[in-house]
């Protein structure tokens, strides 16, 4: 009996087991039925300003205006939407059974579908299954699937998240998808700024976006909006006055264009995929007002530059407080992007650097104690291994103070300073400071590195100059800062800084002396003028014009040129880029100048004439140098000389008694420097000649009065051929302190002839090493060894 009973129970248990198993399978299937990613669609790249305003946007890959979903739903639209679509949205669990029952009854009475009873959750499911444009047939079976998935959706997401999904993917007519895109396309404002009437219009649009919109059945659209406004008033959402004002608002006449305030920036950010979490959403640091004004200034200036065949320009405005970018103009006119070069973002395009690295060499040499601001730097014909730099005006000044060489952007002193400092050291310094485009070895660049032999980007050079400002403002800054154009990247640090506050401030002080162009040239005459430290750069071949300016508050960086690298006359930093830079500064808030950081500076006593430490034989002055500078170079140019009291000729103790001498301190440059220096300085006094009898004795007391201008020591000379194929001559040049001195020329112990006053000789030479020697009529001699290169 018991056995039979057990056998009878087994089929029941088996059925229960099978049923439970089937139920578990169904439950598992149901749980995993909902995809992990509800919407498999592309989104429009969107950039916002620092204030949260729309800066720029692009259509998504499927040509729809579909902005990335946002969790915040404006209250007005939220209330209007739930009132119109799903008044019990907050209380049901995905399906509104009361609405469903009413819809079934209405449909049976009318013998047709007049109400779908779809909740916002169900509509979200339908949008995810259909895509925003809709392509699934409406059927009872589809409705059941939507109901089941809606309940499942409610299990995994909050009401706010579901509402955000719907709001971001609902169709609003044409290729406009989602509330954010619709708000900007229809009203030119963010959703949070919409009125009740505008919110109500957008709330009713997704109900039938293809049948009722601005261009089709406008009256029906207005009627639907007005009925919703009435329901809101009846529900006590707002006052009668608000209701009347809302009803009086007209519908927009047509869709608006999306803002295009930073087209190149949004393209660059999209390509770089800088926002991993939300790859299509960029909350930038740009200021809407500044961006708009600077874009207009660049566009206007570009029209003028185009008359000179200079077609493109780019600009950055940096807030020095945190190195955030406030304006980013990647090119002069994006509306002409289908023409050559205008679609290129030139902010990140490597271009020849021109002279923009010179202040950085100046700053690091101040820091290392190699120079001070007033140290004299030789400026005379110079050649290193066949490389012969020239100044922009093709003239020589003999010797110039370092800060003047920087302010006048002289090439020869800069090359000499780089050779003195060390090419590899400066190369490393540039990389540490943030120059990212040095992809060759230091030797590949050579000394032309300081004159535009390397490339840089507007982004990198703006960052480096902005760091000069931040270091000048804050002695506690330990690292270089990085530019930020996204709000999430603010205050990002780079490598440890190698310039102190004192050196940075001294560099910016030197850059105040750069002569401004045009109407700006008389800025010092007006007390209202703003102090701006600035530098220009012009690349070889007139292909690139740079201008970078710094105040305590702002750094402005400008590049002008042609995207294809074509050079044109007049394409210089001073003539083309600088006027645009100053125009940009005129659009920005003014700021006072940097305070002198006395606690990061120290005083030294130097000679007025040459900026070297005094040896007691010069007129001295006090100069400020960086606190940690170890500058210890004593003047090599000041001497005590002895003169014959009666004739004024130079004498020494081996040819004249001391009682017959008078002694004076004199500033004496080497002959080569002196030759050019005295042309620029009428007050320069040359050394008196020795009395004839003093030359015959005590030659160790006399200095050689002559020197070569060309060739330099161990120079390599390449001799070009003339048009008829003949080898050209090598031209030698020398200078002598005595104006009418005679020089006797020899090459490889072969006599060439003599010169007087103008000391030049030309000769044909075979390839190989040679030595040229000159001797004057007092017996002084000097030689130079050089190599003539073959083919």
From TrEMBL:
Residues 307-338 form the PLD phosphodiesterase domain. Keywords: Carboxypeptidase, Glycosyltransferase, Hydrolase, Multifunctional enzyme, Protease, Transferase. The keyword Membrane does not apply. This is peptidoglycan glycosyltransferase. Pfam families: BiPBP_C, Transgly, Transpeptidase. GO terms for biological process: peptidoglycan biosynthetic process; phosphorus metabolic process; proteolysis. The keyword Cytoplasm does not apply. GO terms for molecular function: carboxypeptidase activity; penicillin binding; peptidoglycan glycosyltransferase activity. Pathway: Cell wall biogenesis; peptidoglycan biosynthesis. It comes from the Bacteria. One of its GO terms (cellular component) is outer membrane-bounded periplasmic space. It catalyses: [GlcNAc-(1->4)-Mur2Ac(oyl-L-Ala-gamma-D-Glu-L-Lys-D-Ala-D-Ala)](n)-di-trans,octa-cis-undecaprenyl diphosphate + beta-D-GlcNAc-(1->4)-Mur2Ac(oyl-L-Ala-gamma-D-Glu-L-Lys-D-Ala-D-Ala)-di-trans,octa-cis-undecaprenyl diphosphate = [GlcNAc-(1->4)-Mur2Ac(oyl-L-Ala-gamma-D-Glu-L-Lys-D-Ala-D-Ala)](n+1)-di-trans,octa-cis-undecaprenyl diphosphate + di-trans,octa-cis-undecaprenyl diphosphate + H(+). The gene is pbpC. Coiled coil: none annotated. Its EC number is 2.4.99.28. In the C-terminal section; belongs to the transpeptidase family.
């Amino acid at each position: 009996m018991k056995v039979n009973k057990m056998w009878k129970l087994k089929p029941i248990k088996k059925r229960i087991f099978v049923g439970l198993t089937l139920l578990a399978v169904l439950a598992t299937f149901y749980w995993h039925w909902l995809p992990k990613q509800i919407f498999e669609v592309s989104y429009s790249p969107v950039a916002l300003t620092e204030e949260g305003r729309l800066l720029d946007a692009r259509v998504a890959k499927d040509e729809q205006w579909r902005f990335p979903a946002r969790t915040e739903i404006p209250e007005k639209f939220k209330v209007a939407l739930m009132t119109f679509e799903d008044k019990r949205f907050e209380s049901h669990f995905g399906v509104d059974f009361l609405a469903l029952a009413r819809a079934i009854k209405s449909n049976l009475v009318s013998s047709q579908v007049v109400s779908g009873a779809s909740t916002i959750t169900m509509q979200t499911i339908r949008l995810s299954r259909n895509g925003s444009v809709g392509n699934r047939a409406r059927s009872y079976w589809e409705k059941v699937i939507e109901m089941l998935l809606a309940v499942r959706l409610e299990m995994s997401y909050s009401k706010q998240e579901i509402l955000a999904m719907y709001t971001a993917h609902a169709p609003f007519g044409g290729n406009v998808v989602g509330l954010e895109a619709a708000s900007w396309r229809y009203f030119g404002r963010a959703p949070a700024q919409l009125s009740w009437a505008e919110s109500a219009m957008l709330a009713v649009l997704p109900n039938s976006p293809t049948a009722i919109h601005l261009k089709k059945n406008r009256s029906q659209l207005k009627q639907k909006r007005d009925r919703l406004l009435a329901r809101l008033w009846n529900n006590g959402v707002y006052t009668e006055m608000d209701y009347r004002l809302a009803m009086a608002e007209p519908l927009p006449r047509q869709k608006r264009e999306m803002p295009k305030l930073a087209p190149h920036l949004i393209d660059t950010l999209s390509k770089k995929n800088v926002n991993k979490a939300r790859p299509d959403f960029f909350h930038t640091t740009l200021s809407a007002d500044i961006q708009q004004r600077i874009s207009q200034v660049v566009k206007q200036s570009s029209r003028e530059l185009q008359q000179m065949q200079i077609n493109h320009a780019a600009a950055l405005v940096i807030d020095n407080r945190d190195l955030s970018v406030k304006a980013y103009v990647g090119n002069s006119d994006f509306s002409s992007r289908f023409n050559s070069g205008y679609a290129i973002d030139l902010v990140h395009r490597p271009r020849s650097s021109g002279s923009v690295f010179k202040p950085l060499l100046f700053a690091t040499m101040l820091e290392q104690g190699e120079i001070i601001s007033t140290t004299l730097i030789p400026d005379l014909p110079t050649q290193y291994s066949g490389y012969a730099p020239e100044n922009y005006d093709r003239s020589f000044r003999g010797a110039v103070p370092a800060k003047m060489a920087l302010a006048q952007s002289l090439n020869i002193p800069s090359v000499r300073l780089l050779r003195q400092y060390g090419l590899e050291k400066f190369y490393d310094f540039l990389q540490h400071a943030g120059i990212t485009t040095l992809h060759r070895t230091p030797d590949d660049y050579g000394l032309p590195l300081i004159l535009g032999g390397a490339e840089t980007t507007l982004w990198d050079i703006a960052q480096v100059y902005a760091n000069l400002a931040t270091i000048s403002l804050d002695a506690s800054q330990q690292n270089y800062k990085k530019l930020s154009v996204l709000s999430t990247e603010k205050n990002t640090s780079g490598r440890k800084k190698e310039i102190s506050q004192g050196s940075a401030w001294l560099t910016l002080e030197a850059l105040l002396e750069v002569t401004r162009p045009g109407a700006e040239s008389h800025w010092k005459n007006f007390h209202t003028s703003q102090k701006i430290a600035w530098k220009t750069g012009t690349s070889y071949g007139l292909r690139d014009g740079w201008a970078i300016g710094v105040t305590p508050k702002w750094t402005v960086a400008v590049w002008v040129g042609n995207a294809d690298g074509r050079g044109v006359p007049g394409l210089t930093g001073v003539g083309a880029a600088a006027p645009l830079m100053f125009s940009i500064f005129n659009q920005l808030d003014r700021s006072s100048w940097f305070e002198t950081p006395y606690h990061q500076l120290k005083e030294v006593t130097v000679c007025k004439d040459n900026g070297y430490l005094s040896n007691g034989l010069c007129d001295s002055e006090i100069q400020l140098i960086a606190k940690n500078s170890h500058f210890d170079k004593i003047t090599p140019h000041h001497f005590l000389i002895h003169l014959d009291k009666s004739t004024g000729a130079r004498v020494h103790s081996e040819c004249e008694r001391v009682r017959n001498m008078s002694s004076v301190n004199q500033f004496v440059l080497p002959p080569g420097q002196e030759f050019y220096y005295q042309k620029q300085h009428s007050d320069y006094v040359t050394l008196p000649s020795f009395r004839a009898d003093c030359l015959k004795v005590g030659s160790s007391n006399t200095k050689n009065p002559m020197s070569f201008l060309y060739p330099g020591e161990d120079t390599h000379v390449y001799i070009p051929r003339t048009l008829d194929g003949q080898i050209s001559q090598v031209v030698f040049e020398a200078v002598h302190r005595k104006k009418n001195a005679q020089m006797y020329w020899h090459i490889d112990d072969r006599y060439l002839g003599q010169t007087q006053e103008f000391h030049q000789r030309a000769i044909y030479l075979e390839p190989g090493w040679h030595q040229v020697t000159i001797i004057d009529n007092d017996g002084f001699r000097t030689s130079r060894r050089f190599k003539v290169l073959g083919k």
